[in-house]
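Discussion board: Methods & Data

I've been asked by a reviewer to show the raw model output for two of the constructs in my manuscript, not just the figures. I'm not sure how much to include, so I'm pasting the format here to get opinions. Each protein appears as its amino acid sequence followed by a line of discrete structure tokens. Is this the kind of thing reviewers expect to see in a supplement, or should I convert it first? Here is construct A:
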Amino acid sequence: MRGWGGVEGRSLTEVTTTAAPTPSADSTSMSSADWARWALPGVVWGTSFFFIAEALEGFPAAVITPLRVGLGFLTLGLVPAARRTRIVGADRWRILLLGTIWMAIPLSLFPFAEQHVSSSVTGMLNGATPIFVTTVAAAMARQLPHRTRLLGLALGVAGVVLIALPTADEGGNSLGGIAMIFAALVFYGFALNVAVPLQQRYGSLPVLWRTQAVALVLTAPFAVPELGDVHLAWKPVLAMVGLGVLGTALAYVAMADNAGRLGSSRASASVYLIPVVSLLLGALVRNEAVAVLSVVGCAVTLVGAWLAGRR
């Protein structure tokens, strides 16, 4: 398997996109336009942690998540494929669960974490997502992963430790931020495994749109008391628009489209750009200090994630 974690030997993106790839899509050559399409979701998602850091300059952490999810929900609502499918039976309860553990909780944790941890470190730690997904999948199946995946998990854990060590030396607040990031990744690990069968039945966009609606309802009440602390300025506002419209909506549409154009395995590989983009934006645009040890840890984590996601 190639991609961001997996269930039953396939990448999560591979089994959760709405478009069905053509039989030869994964083996065909790619044009320059195809490469641009391929990179788009990973680059956009990689900017998310940068956008959160910028948005925090004008919006309280409790306000960022409902704004982000609300903008994503409104944008996805313009896509007919997201609206037309009807969720039936017990799957509605699973949508409620996903809205809580996939959207409301982890997306709320990241802004609070970035009050204490840099956007680059947050993005690099996010590279460990497939490690958590694979671990949860193995636990749910009550079956040990094969040796290659076990090696990947071990490397992933080692990489995460290397990323976090320099930040942990900064004191208790930073440790609290790292703990919140880890908690978010644990929720992702469970949520993405729960999401797979739902998205196989209904497609990724209908499930995502409805989970965003749930998350908006759950997070909006916490934002109301903080609205008086909002300070509108063009940079935080633009960051919120980018975070909501691009990162929480259009990137998912692009990924689903890429699965049909390029093949789902190939399309899913773009998520490996996320920690790299986050690192570059944090270091070069926000002038964040990035320890060499953290960069090494990021590379180790990505290798581990790739191994953990192989068939």
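Construct B, same format:
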Amino acid sequence: MAAVAPAMLSAPASAQELSEKATRTFMEYSWTLTPERFTKPNGETILIDKSKRDEVQVPLEVAREVIRAGRLSAHAQACGLAKEQGDNHNSLMRRHLDSKRWSPQQIVYINQLHLTVVMLLTGRIKLVEKGEGEGTDKEVVVAEEAQKNNQTCSAEQKEKVKEMIAAYVKSGPALASSDKPATGSAAATGSTTVVPKTTAE
């Protein structure tokens, strides 16, 4: 995954279709970082039983959609498009909230999957191998400032990302101009969140 992330960010977000293996890898590390307790702005607390993974994770095709949106958010962040990044995330979450298909725990997981993709692709978290050989465990850790990906964004790329996000937002439910991240987390887009060192199970 460490090699996959920069490659995914350097290519157009619409140009790659994730393999099942890559999708499940993102899902795995997102699950590792999913909190056991999530408090919404209104004070409501959502508890997540980490022993019931199958009840919280979403189907593979849904995860692919979330990862595609996360990849687009990562492109927006690399191009300094904060508003578009927020709109992209809000549109993703609004679609899933409005669908009424998911439990509160699954909504938290969808948000965490998006966040994990953004942070991996922009270098804010990284995977560190523990030991050697096949089947080696990995840790998800916060990247030091100097280790963050050196991202560039040309004017042409910036316009392309803006167009893609505009099309994605237009195809979904209407967003209010003052819409906040649908999960209520100010850092949900991955631009400011700090993730504690966590060991993958």
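Answer (T.O., handling editor elsewhere):
This is acceptable in a supplement if you add a one-line summary per construct. For B, something like: The first strand starts at residue 37 and ends at 39.
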